[in-house]
Amino acid sequence: MFAGFLAQHGFDDASNLVGGLALPKNHLGVSLAQCAMVIGVLFAVLTYTASQGSAVQVTLPNEPHLKSVHVIWQKRTVPAFQVDAIWTTVLGVDLDAKPGEHAAEAVLTMDDGRVERREIVVNVAAKKFPTTPLKVEGRFVELSKADLARSKVESREANAIYERTTTDLLPREPFTVPIPGAVGKNFGERRIFNGEPRAPHSGADLSAAAGTPVHATNRGRVVLAKNLFFTGNTVILDHGLGIISLYAHLSRIDVKVGEKVKRGQFIAAVGNTGRSTGPHLHYETRINDEAVDPQRFLRAGLRLGNI
Length: 307
Known about the structure:
- The protein is mostly beta strands.
- It folds into two domains: 2-125, Peptidoglycan hydrolase domains (Immunoglobulin-like, Sandwich); 131-300, Glucose Permease (Domain IIA) (Distorted Sandwich), CATH 2.70.70.
- 14% of the residues lie in helices and 42% in strands.
- The strands form four sheets. Strands 14, 15, 16, 17, 18, 19, 20, 21 and 22 form a nine-stranded antiparallel beta sheet that branches.
- A hairpin with a 3-residue loop joins strand 16 (220-228) and strand 17.
- The relative contact order is 0.17.
- The model is unreliable at 1-21 and 25-42 (pLDDT under 50).
């Protein structure tokens, strides 16, 4: 069942990293399916390898009397869900994560109240990101007092969204590109605006003409839909399990906060608002408040089944 789940979701159990989404590797010299069968007995350490700005799908086999599972990662509690014969969840590895070993822990609660723990290690590999100089309107580099105050309020609002983990609406299908046929680029670039270094580019830019329809990358709930100082007209969708998608620099917004949207639903149109050098879509994916490469996440074909 474990191997079948991987095949169903497009993963190859001979590989440790597929499309930017890491899969477990064990130290027992056996296949992943065999490893899954003996983890509960041997308490083997689940080891994953992931590059900066990628995602890790944690999988644990179901066990008799197992009631719930959650993973503690980067001081966050991330719930897992049962899909057929396994429990699974997704962890984000930020583009600025320190290379090396990072510890996580799976906490298993049994129906009689007993709690068991499984050790998880994520080996983060360094990735080199280019530096790009850009020329933008001066007010987006040297902020006025009013604009600085506004940007701080908006940053706190966005961070509060990123830090939430909801479980009532989860993806049932793979994530898709919000502009069909478009290829995202520039994720992780170190940006220099008007000669001043700024934060790394936390999303991918999709080239498109102004007015091009923008579609929801997966089903979710609209948690923000308004104009922001840096990203202009912006929509943020909550897909559950700490997975967030953001669409920025829009010319118009066609959804409202609280609205549930379907995968592929028209939600906005490409524009050039905010700190932008021309019409395009800034498309961002965050997992557990960690910025991950949307293009690699899309290639992973992740879905959590009919939960």
